[in-house]
Amino acid sequence: MDKELRDKILQYMLYRKECTAMLICYGLGYSLERYSAVRAALADMLAAGEIEYYAARLTWRLPNEGRGCV
Question: Looking at the record's lineage, which domain of life comes first (predicted)?
Fold first, then answer.
């Protein structure tokens, strides 16, 4: 995985809390050509447990976001 892209995604998610892959791509200023790279990075981050996929809203979020302290 591209570490620079991973860091940019995490930084963006700290600001947005919950977002779609397209919103991440747009927010980082990437064109649609980079969309597949963003999706691949999100899949790798999901497998590593760094983020969660919220299927009910089709969004990605950081673990424990919006659910209070654990």
Answer: Bacteria
As a whole number, mean pLDDT of residues 32-40 equals 91
Looking at residue 58, its amino acid is: L
Domain boundaries 3-61, corresponding CATH code: 1.10.10.10
Sign of CA dihedral 35, 8, 19, 40: positive
CA dihedral angle for residue 25, residue 29, residue 35, residue 39, rounded to 10 degrees: -40
H-helix or E-strand spanning residue 23: helix 21-27
**Amino acid code (one letter) for 53:** Y
C-alpha closest to that of 25 among 49, 50, 42, 46: 42
Residue spans of the domains in the chain: they are: 3-61
